[in-house]
Amino acid sequence: MPEVDRVAQIQRPDEMRRPLSGRARSVLLVVFALSSALHLYSWYVHPDRPSLRNGATMGWYGASADHINYAREARALADGLLPGTYWDYDRGAPKRDRPPDVEVSDYAYGLGYPVLGVPFMNLGLRRDPFVIPDMVAFGLIICLALQLARRFMSGVAALVFAGVLAVASPVLAFTVIPWNTTITAVAVLAALVVATSERRDWKIGALVGLALSLCYAARFSDVLWPMLIVAVGIAATWRRNVKGCVAVVAVAAGMLAATYLVVGWTQHVVFGHFFTNPYHYHFHEGNRGDSFAEFRLGQVPRAFTEVFITAKPGGRRVPEPHTSVLRVFPWVVAAPFGLAMLIRRRHRHLGPLVVASAASLVASALYLSYWSGTGADLVHNNLRFFVPWFPLWGLLAAVALTSLAERSATALHAGSGAEPQSPSRPPNGTRHRWMTAVLVVIAATLAVVWYVNRPVVIDLVERFPGAQKRPVSATEQTFAVRSAQIGGETRRAIYAHPPTRITWTVTLPGEAQLRAALGIDPQAWDLDGDGVLFRVGVNDGEGYKELWNQHVDPRHTPGDRRWIPIMIDLTRFGGRRVDIIFNTNTSLPGKGDDARNDLALWGAPAIWPSVLTGFPQ
Question: Lower CB density within 10 Å: C or N end of the chain?
């Protein structure tokens, strides 16, 4: 039997019909507790989280239309009102006859996610009612991923995968912040666990019904994907357990139908029509949100490159901390190889996984074709659209990587002469070629991802021709780029005879440091003059802020006869487009205006990302 299948047989079909054992439940409870604790900690230290004190910062509820509407809808439901009751959809504004003491909420998104916050609104968490539901959802995602992985690899490998998924994938980041795609992620994983199980009864039907109902109520079209996955699993076990499959279908379909009627009723009350959903009132460039005109299939290749690989819409990198999928989830490159391995070995759970993989590609293509699916919307967290598929892709990658590790260990062990090669395994040459191909492709992909997303140093000398310079009418006697040697050290430098100002407009990395060296051309050291005042500042749109000034006078101060390094922390301006401003003045304030022999040099000025600031300049 092929090795991966042999490991997967640890969970036999008859075992998968029975409820979880006490030991398995204990492991899942521990994993759930640890995952929940990790989520709460990540929420607590998140720089954009809302404060729980009234009058303090609203965090993401004051910055994003999505989060604002989630919270308003939850508050309306908690107060016994349907969202949109006092909203005039013709005017796009609150109704004029609304009660003055009622907070007006728009029915902007499906109610499946806001309704989860209602109990916590009533318990007093009105500042952030979703922190507990999101914590529970993240715990469920990790536990369901663990249970699913257990069917494709050993228990230890499955636990390792669950831990890596929790801490080394984007899942945590996009469940700490409230997004309704979290519901879809839980529904997809629940569907996969059910589809790869042999157990069929009304309890499973209730679980499927709850997952599908919440998914439909939260994100109407997303329910298609878990429905397809469950349908494949039901079809695979229909002949073996007709009665159980009928029970699952009947209970799940009944719950989903009831949800459909309730959602339709709310839409009829608010919008005046059973089939009109909230997206009908989302407008973009004259198109409604539920219009096919919002989707452009032709942009999918470009959007894929920007969102998954480069994070460079229009050739310009988006500001940190926003970035591409492969920058935050590099090991996902092994996912296609994991699926190929399972197909090659005809794994018994192949059907649901192939359907889920195909669904993930179709869903991803649809989101990439959406008007907000390109790299330009990375800054608006559009990676959330792919969160439902990250656990699946991570599982497939884990299958490939664990299989590769096991094959490598087996090959090394066999090479030592300790154990003869099993006749059931492929010949050594075939196995080695397969391993080599996988390693080469993964290494090449990671190398490309690293190169595209490598930390970029902003060289201000290279950008000097495009900088704004004052005086405007200056000649080479005022500004020049040259190689300058001071104290035996040569640097590429900007010569700027004061008084001057140089302004670069740049987008800073999330955490950055400005590094340069100040100096006076050695030929002026023994000549008359009183030195140069170097000044560095930033204009972030709220006025000029001086960050550094230093007077350099090598004639009267022997210690200034060198390159004087400066390092300025720019973290507080991280991710923003700002003006970096270099000034040179002829003298200190109040000391006159002596421009004699002021041969000022800015040595190798550059902005370094924090990940590189420990490197020598």
Answer: N
